[in-house]
Design a protein that fits this description.
Layout: H1 2-25, H2 30-50, H3 58-66, E1 77-79, E2 82-84, H4 97-123
Antiparallel strand pairs: 1-2
């Protein structure tokens, strides 16, 4: 329970410092700010999801956390999408991690496209 509070506290502290630094540095283009913010949120969310893969004893973690048996034949560990399965039905990575990661990545891509589009249009000289 305490580790969850520490993770949330660290996330909020990093986010607060990042937003403060970016607001001071980039006072102009809001799309660039959103792109940067979404990119960092995507990275932080991926790292938080990655912590569910850091398990010393997968058999013990499956039994204690999910109260299920560990099947070595069905065990799969992947980095994208994040997954660390105990058996064919149970995964140590929470179900919300991968959909939220996909939404954040899509939003980052859209904001990045808007930033580049605005930058290219601003460089054009009207004839």
């Amino acid at each position: 329970m305490l580790s969850d509070f520490l993770q949330v506290g660290a996330f909020v502290a990093v986010l607060w410092c990042f937003v403060t630094a970016v607001r001071r540095a980039a006072r102009g283009d809001r799309w660039a700010l959103w792109t940067l913010l979404l990119a960092v949120l995507t990275g932080v969310h991926y790292l938080v999801g990655l912590t569910h893969l850091l398990v010393l004893d997968i058999r013990e973690m499956c039994e204690l956390t999910l109260h299920t048996r560990f099947d070595p034949d069905e065990h799969v560990e992947t980095l994208l999408p994040l997954s660390n399965t105990c058996n064919a039905d149970d995964d140590l990575v929470p179900a919300y991690v991968n959909p939220a990661l996909a939404v954040l990545a899509a939003a980052t891509l859209a904001a990045g496209t808007a930033t580049v589009t605005r930058a290219v249009r601003a460089r054009r000289i009207p004839v």
